[in-house]
Specification:
By secondary structure, the chain is α/β, with parallel strands linked by helices. The chain has a single domain, classed as Metal-dependent hydrolases (TIM Barrel, Alpha-Beta Barrel), CATH 3.20.20.140. It is built from 10 helices and 8 strands. Strands 1-2-3-4-5-6-7-8 form an 8-stranded parallel sheet. Strand 4, helix 4 and strand 5 form a beta-alpha-beta unit. The longest helix has 18 residues. The radius of gyration is 17 Å and the shape is globular. InterPro entries: DNase_TatD-rel_CS, Metal_Hydrolase, TatD-like, TatD/YcfH-like.
Length: 258
């Protein structure tokens, strides 16, 4: 299995990161993608990836933090992506639920990341919350200026944005939310997404899947996400694991090259 979105740096795993990684490997997780949320955290994220043969990472600024990096440049992202361990740009995006950063800062940051994805030919990891229409419009407008591959991560948006992203050659990732009893709308949308465009993630330490809800999430729980997707799609879980792993390696081709 390939856990395509793990947040391993920082306090949640300070005391037992090596144990967490050991449990992940024992559970069948063979690859992990460590996500950069702030540019000043990139060195820590990169160090984790460089220390482990089965971990790669991204470079980017989460939309919540875009107000803190208004001087972010394409060159800074492209330079960081020169590392063999950096296989994606982001996570970036739009989040108007919490309003931690103003709209203009989020949009500017998103477009900076898009240009970096173009220049590096790396996939673009996108976080979207309460911004489906604007996200879809920006993706289509920017794609017309030059192609890139969008990944709608931890997807909880509507069917229309998923369709717009897929039409651009994009992918959708599913997390433990898929297993939540209350997530009927999410399941209805993912049911319409073709299997060849779906990948798995835990988004740990957040969003632990059923039956682990209430605990700190970790990559070893990824099989529960696969099981939720298998139930939804009525496909054997081993087939889901094989298909999503192949999809992830196709998307993150820099991993496959190694």
């Amino acid at each position: 299995m390939f856990d395509t979105h793990v947040n391993l740096h920082g306090e949640p795993y300070e005391e037992d990161l090596q144990d967490v990684l050991a449990r992940a490997r024992e559970s069948g997780v063979q690859r992990m993608l460590a996500i950069c949320d702030r540019l000043d955290n990139f060195p820590a994220v990169l160090r984790i990836a460089e220390a482990q043969p089965d971990i790669w990472c991204s470079i980017g600024v989460h939309p919540h933090h875009s107000k803190d990096f208004t001087d972010l440049t394409v060159d800074a992202l492209v330079e960081g992506a020169k590392s063999a361990k950096v296989v994606a740009i982001g996570e970036t995006g739009l989040d108007f639920h919490y309003g931690y950063s103003p709209e203009d800062a989020q949009v500017k940051s998103l477009k900076t990341h898009i240009e970096a994805a173009r220049q590096t030919d790396l996939p673009l990891i996108l976080h979207t919350r309460e911004a489906d229409d604007m996200m879809g419009d920006i993706l289509e407008e920017e794609f017309a200026r030059g192609e890139f591959v969008p990944l709608l991560h931890c997807y909880t948006g509507g069917l229309r944005l998923a369709q717009r992203g897929l039409a651009l050659g994009g992918f959708v990732s599913v997390s433990g939310i898929l297993s939540f009893k209350s997530a009927r709308e999410v399941r209805a949308v993912i049911a319409e997404v073709p299997m060849e465009r779906i990948i798995l993630e835990t988004d740990c330490p957040y969003l632990a899947p059923v039956p682990m809800r209430g605990r700190r999430n970790e990559p070893s729980y990824l099989r529960h996400v696969a099981e939720a997707l298998a139930t939804l799609k009525d496909i054997p879980v081993d087939e889901v694991i094989a298909m999503t792993d192949e999809n992830a390696q196709r998307l993150f081709s820099k991993v496959r090259a190694k």
